[in-house]
Amino acid sequence: MDIHQFFLGNAFDAYTFFGAHVQKDGSVCFRTLAPNAEKVSLIYEGNGWKEIPMEKTHPGGVYTCIVPDAIPGMMYKYRIYSEHFADVEFIDHCDPYGFGMELRPGTASIIRDTDSYHFQDSEWLSQRGGHLEKPVNIYEVHLGSWKTNPNDPNGWYRYEELAPLLIAYAKKNGYNYIECMPLSEHPADCSWGYQNTGFYSPTARYGDMDGLKKFVDLCHRSGIGVIMDFVPVHFAVDDYALWNFDGTALYEYPHGDVGKSEWGSCNFMHSRGEVRSFLQSAADYWLEEFHFDGLRMDAISNLIYWQGNPARGENKDAVQFLQNLNSGLKARFPSALLIAEDSTARPNITTPVWSGGLGFDYKWDMGWMNDTLSYFQAPVSERMEKYHKLTFSMQYFYDEK
Fold first, then answer.
1. Which whole number is the average pLDDT over 373-388?
2. What is the DSSP letter of 90?
3. How crowded is residue 230: how many other Cβ atoms within 10 Å of its Cβ?
């Protein structure tokens, strides 16, 4: 990674630099960003959670340490000391770039070997693409509630167990894509994954990194594409994660009027280079490391307009972030699907960036399910008056894909 480009907000590979990385000699290199910290230590289970001081290796606030005895599967955290903490000397945080996390209510990151799984989907990847000319029929699913496992206390199947079940269902019902609600780590089951604490960590509810890779791999080998729900707008307020990471608003806005979202979560500050690189790299990570076929980006209206409200005006920094994100992803993954979950009437969502648009391939048809169900829930005698529920999308059909 080019550290200068990272701070400028142009990096798409920050996960290759930050986080916990297994080295060729078997040691693990840990790196985190905490520019406003007094000092940072690593704590991990391999030495009984005793502090290991991290060295400040870049004036921008990069802290690094190498641990010879750390191995994949071990838990760790960063202990951040800051004079900005109100009532405590330090706070133990999970790794913003961690590749694995404990199952809630645990909050530690877990060392993962990102090269341990070997995909067998080269045939799928070689012919992927052309989705604007071919039928796309997407089955949206929340893995935790789609089907319950009677042998698990939480009712969950593992990623690799879900794959054959979902593949069979998709094929039987004519779907050629599965779209998974957010799979990055989150603390609350009831949130369905939309308030993240681990943007690079597959949720431990259904297994680990290799299990999710196998899920995607099996789908591809069966002719099914997989899209992941990606959340670039906001994050969970839990103090062990991104919130107030180094004692200051490192990832979020410092002011509450734009810092808190309508869901009570923290809004990312998209004008900061470090935040842009963090999110761009997370998007790249899921497409590169897990072979996802696309991203459905959640709550885009809250990026286009301040707090999602057109009356408050356009958030030009966030719009520019989206354009840079989509341009970069298209350059790296030309055949990947980029989909905006957007409830606004703003034009040019699916217009290329070079023509002044946001650069998405598709706009998610948010009204299709609700309007269609509402129409058929009405008594037959009333449907003649409700036909507009089936035809409403034609108002923007000719402007967006």
1. 93
2. E
3. 26
Peptide bond into 232 cis (omega under 30): no
- Structure letter (DSSP) for residue 389: H
Q: Is 232 exposed, middle or buried (0-12, 13-18, 19+ CB in 10 A)?
A: buried
Q: Look-up: residue for tokens 């055949």?
A: 335
The pLDDT score that the predictor gives to residue 286 is 98
DSSP assignment of 323-388, as one string?
HHHHHHHHHH-TT-EEEE---S--S-SSS-GGGTS---SEE--THHHHHHHHHHHS-GGGGGGGTH
Q: Give the pTM.
A: 0.94
* DSSP assignment of 296-324: EETTTHHHHBGGG-GGG-B-HHHHHHHHH
Catalytic residues: 298, 341
Structure tokens at 57: 């290796």
**The residue type at 67:** V
* Residue 393, pLDDT above cutoff 80: no
In the three-class reduction of DSSP (H, G, I as helix; E, B as strand; rest coil), residue 207 is classed as coil
DSSP class of 68: T
Q: Which pair of tokens denotes residue 337?
A: 């699907």
Helix (H) or strand (E) holding 170: helix 159-172
CA 263/CA 28 separation, integer angstroms: 37
Q: Per the structure block, which two tokens stand in for 286? A: 């899921």
Q: Do the Cβ atoms of 317 and 49 come closer than 8 Å?
A: no
Instruction: Report the C-alpha gap between 43 and 195 in whole angstroms.
Output: 26
Instruction: Compute the distance between CA of residue 113 and CA of residue 14 in angstroms, rounded to an integer.
Output: 17
| Residues 176-226: tens digit of each pLDDT | 999 999 999 999 988 889 999 999 999 999 999 999 999 999 999 999 999
Q: Closest Cα to residue 213, out of 163, 174, 272?
A: 163
Nearest to 305 by CA among 294, 314, 318: 314
Vertex 1 angle, CA 108 and 13, to 5°: 60
* pLDDT value, residue 84: 85
State the angle between helix axes of 273-290 and 209-221 in degrees (0 to 180), rounded to the nearest 10.
50
Among 234, 333, 231, smallest CA distance to 289 is for 333
**Per-residue pLDDT reduced to its tens digit, 228-270:** 999 999 999 999 999 999 999 999 999 878 888 888 899 999 9
